[in-house]
Amino acid sequence: MVRFEEIFSKAEAAAGATVAVASAEDYEVLKSVHMAVEKNLASFILVGDEKKIASMIQESFPDLTEPAISIQHAENTQNAALEAVKLVSSGKAGVLMKGHVETSILLKAVLNKEVGLRTGNVLSHVALFEVPAIDRSIFITDAAMNIAPDLNQKVQIIQNAVKIAHGAGVQNPSVAPLAAVETINPAMQATLDAAALTQMNRRGQIKGCVIDGPLALDNAISVKAAEHKGISGPAAGKADILLVPSIEAGNILYKSLMYFGNSKVGAVISGAKAPIVLTSRADSAESKLYSLALAICTSY
Ligand SMILES: CCCC(=O)OP(=O)(O)O
């Protein structure tokens, strides 16, 4: 099981990245930048309202100076997102980070046909949670990007998550495609897709992981619940990656783990030309720092 402490060690060993931050004029974002610079993880190009960023730094983080950071002015959040994306696509930065900008605005810039970071593959969101209630870590995908993925998109979403899990040190992750039940019901698309994904994995069409579903959330994360319901299989009770059937399920699960579950999170977009740090605007500086470490240690 992977912990953020190990992810930090890996990221420190790979340090040296330049991160472009879209809309850096936010206290928690700047605090995470400050912590990352203190840990020598990366240097930063802070894109956004120059005056605001400079005065926030002067007031709260006066030791945050060049060359660890530089500031690039942008008129508004749309501009900041596009300029930050351009810094990455032109090679001036190796990692993109969401600052105080709506996810949809950032992703629009990421998907921009001329300067964006598309690869031709599906891009998807992967979040790693350290969950105190079950004393273990779990990846959840996709809480932020793909609205209602079909089977083909789910295949790529799993592949993207497996890549991040490998980079984080989980070699052959077990993947649970989640549904409301653990049996196949033709009226429930999530169960049909889960069965197909499981069989595709058995036939070698999806590699680097073990897929086992459909599973309901309890049977995927609790051995006790799986045993109580008589469910066995490689992911039953011990899934490393939870594939959610829709963005609503994923986003609600993400925020439940944060607000009810007191979890730690690090989250990235996988499948683009470069890793993208993408947490909720309301997530803490620590979460943004964990995400940076995850992005750096899984960069490709
Ligand atoms: C879970 C990350 C995506 C998200 O919901 O971001 P916001 O809370 O900033 O909308």
Automatic annotation (TrEMBL):
Record protein name field: Phosphate butyryltransferase
Pfam families: PTA_PTB
Keyword set includes Transit peptide: no
GO MF term list: phosphate butyryltransferase activity
UniProt entry keywords in alphabetical sequence: Acyltransferase, Transferase
Gene3D superfamilies according to UniProt: Isopropylmalate Dehydrogenase
Domain Phosphate acetyl/butaryl transferase: 5-60, 75-295
Classification of source organism: Bacteria, Bacillati, Bacillota, Bacilli, Bacillales
Coiled coil: none
Top-rank lineage group of the source organism: Bacteria
BP terms from Gene Ontology: butyrate metabolic process
Similarity comment text for this entry: Belongs to the phosphate acetyltransferase and butyryltransferase family.
